[in-house]
Structures are given as structure tokens and as C-alpha cells.
Description:
CATH architecture of the largest domain: Orthogonal Bundle
CATH class of the largest domain: Mainly Alpha
Number of domains: 2
Order of helices and strands: HEEEHEEEHHHEEEEHHHHH
Number of helices: 10
Strand content: 5-15%
Amino acid sequence: MSVGFENLVPACILDAVETAMDCSLTGLTSPLPSYINRVYELEAVDGERLIAKFYRPGRWKREALEDEHAFVLDCAADEIPVVAPLALADGGTIGEYDGILFSVFPKCSGREMELHTDEGWRRLGALVGRIHLAGSRREAPHRLRMHPQTTTLPEIEQLLGFMSPHQADRFREVALRIADIALREFEEVELQRIHGDCHRANILERPGEGLMVIDFDDMVTGPPVQDIWLLLPGHANTVRHEINLILEGYEQFMDFDDRSLRLVEILRAMRMIYFLSWCSTQLDDFRFQANFPDWGGEMFWQREIADIERQYHTILNDERLRF
Length: 323
């Protein structure tokens, strides 16, 4: 009898991990916050704390998870502080229980990095530069390719079915204008393995040890500047000082094409559209309905489209900037 993702119980979790790792665990199965996956803290009989991540079926194929793990392990091999998946008894890093894929990680804790000095921004840049150096060494053929042709345009089409004809016309007009600019600006951009979701909450400070990068779930093949703009405290035209400091650190390890800074506000708009598209795939999830009760209503779309229109005008202004 199939267990089902929503019905993973402690006995199933313990059985899956003990079998995959050929180890013995105590009865501890403490759930951790995660909207997409099921994540639990476990304890080995020797006292080692582990984190087991059971992936929501249908989100990632095994090959895509293998691409993610390969990236993280490449970073670990370069002594970049990341949380790498543990090897299972079969030598791989991905287990399977009743059709559900899962991985096991060592428990690592830290606090969100506080940025009060120029050196802090340089440290961030150096860390991202090291990650991108590791990322440049091989491809991730089964991961998403972040490009307006393969991401933004399909997302726009998907969203049009969730709004009234009037709102759809307004959304289509501004979103396609953004996509047209993005397609032009992406023509000369080189894409490679990047973190993809490199905001500051995913970079932890470990007292006495330094910075640690977590959560490679959304790694993509994309433009390196994606991992830089997500760190910024404001729009590109207001944070030039921070950009310069990040790039000072970054270019200790990797060259950076300054022309790609024109993508910053375009990528912000693409992320806005992406998030709306992602939400549209979660409507049947009861937790989503509880967290976003007004999603898809007329007032909701009025607010969201107004935000995208403002971002479009920010892009137009930024197109005149020269970095």
C-alpha cells in the first residue's frame, strides 16, 4: 500500500533513512519548516544530528537532483562552506522510499549575516565568486535554464488564464514589453551553474567559522548577475556602492562582465513574474490557500500588475544607466 507524500509518518521516515544509510537512529523525528518538501531533524544513536529532506513528487526528477548535488559537492571539494548531501550506503546521495526521493544532510546551524561594513559586502562577493568558479567547471543539463525564452514567456502565458480579460490585457501588454527587453539583453549573456536563490537569508554566519551558503534547491543554469542582485539592499540605481564592493570581492576569483549589470532590474521583473506563476501551480494546496487567501481576485491582480508596471518603468530608467 502506498504511503503518499502527505502521509509520511515517523516510522516511515526512520525506516527510509536507516535503510538508506545502513545506520541506527533514535526515535527523534522533528519536522522543520519547509513549504515544498518534507524536512525532518533526526538523531543517530551516536548522537549525530541529521537532516532528512523528502522531495515533493513531481517537482524534481532524479537527474535534476543529481545536478544539484553535483554542484554542491563541487563547491565542497573547493572548500567552499556549503551543506553537502551525505553519501548513502549505495554510494549515491539520493534515496527512494515508496516512490518518494529523499536526501540526508548533516545538521549545520548559523545565523543570518549582518552587514554593517564595507568588508562584509566584499566577503559576500568573494563567496559568490568562489561558488561561480566551481559552477563554471561543468554543466547542469537537467536543471532549469534561466532565460526569458524558456522561463518568462511560458510563465506569462500560464498566468493569463487566472485573471479577467481586462486584467489579462493589461498584464500581457506590460509583461511582454519586459520580455522583449529581456530577450534583447540576454543575447550576449553567458549562462552557467549558479545558486539561483542567493538572497541573504541563504547565507549564514557561523561564529568562529565564517559564512556558509545553504539551500541550493533552486539552482539553475543562468546569468551570474542573478546571484549578485539578490544580495542587494535596493534597486540598482540606489546601491552602486554595494555593487562595487561585491564585485571587488567577486573578481578576486572570477571575472565579471559589467555589462550584465543592465540585467539587474530585468531579472527582478522576471522573478516577480516567476513567483506569480509558481503560485498559480499551488492553488490546490490547502496551506497555500490559508497563506494567500486573496490570491487571484480582482484586487489582487490590480495590485500585482501595478507593481509590475512600476518595475517596467524602473527598467526603462535603468536602461539609460552606464555601469
